[in-house]
Amino acid sequence: MSSLLAALDAGDARPDSIALRARSYELLGDLTGRTVVDVGCGGGRAVAELAGRGATAIGIDRDAEMIAVARERWPGNEFQVGDAHDLRLETGSVTGYRADKVLHTLDDPARAVAEARRVLAPGGRIVLLGPDWDTIVVDSDDPETTRRLIHAKADTFPSPRVARKYRNLLLDAGFTDPIVEVHTGVFTDETALALLGRITQHESWLAEQAERGRANRVFVAVPMFLVAARC
Ligand SMILES: C[S@@+](CC[C@H](N)C(=O)[O-])C[C@H]1O[C@@H](n2cnc3c(N)ncnc32)[C@H](O)[C@@H]1O
Prior knowledge:
The chain is of the alpha/beta class. The chain has a single domain, classed as Rossmann fold, CATH 3.40.50.150. Helices cover 40% and strands 26% of the residues. Strands 1, 2, 3, 4, 5, 6, 7 and 8 form an eight-stranded mixed sheet that branches. Strand 1, helix 3 and strand 2 form a beta-alpha-beta unit. The longest helix has 12 residues. Bound molecules: S-adenosylmethionine. S-adenosylmethionine (SAM) binds next to loops.
């Protein structure tokens, strides 16, 4: 959990991540006085940022340790331990639902989206955000191994390619007016090496990337899929 949190914190601080979170909040519509749930909230930053924009924000995460960290970091906000597939929220009780880098970790994303629709009031908005783990781009002298390593990492997740399905999942669940955007994070510094170290332990491949780092020749691109729709 602590290494995931450290990686999330490092990513969160990047200017493009800050802008992407802001865009995700904008797509939730007018937040003033609205109740918004951030599902899979992790360390809770988005909950505090949503509250700062006038929402009554609730953070929910399956991991009790994450919720403990969120409560400590962002006192005064509401955090619950809970499961995206089966939320302990009343039907129609929220006007915004957000899940950032979460659905790829779920066994049944369609069930989570149906659950989102249940808890959203008519006219409420949903925003899903995350990478498609098969489409991480890395420049390497060994493209075959690169493809194999990226796909091997993708295969560690229950739903690695769910981001390309966000729009269809929402339509299938009865959401309307989908908006689709792709915002690509480009990593050319030491943050790229940290990211690649979370993808693989393959020593010679990482050594080539480290050498590229010393020569300022690292290039990693991560398309982030952002899809919003109306209930
Ligand atoms: C990659 S982290 C992203 C955290 C946060 N959304 C962010 O952007 O920093 C994924 C989070 O989803 C949570 N999670 C995984 N499965 C879940 C489930 N079934 N219900 C609720 N949360 C879940 C994990 O515990 C973790 O905190």
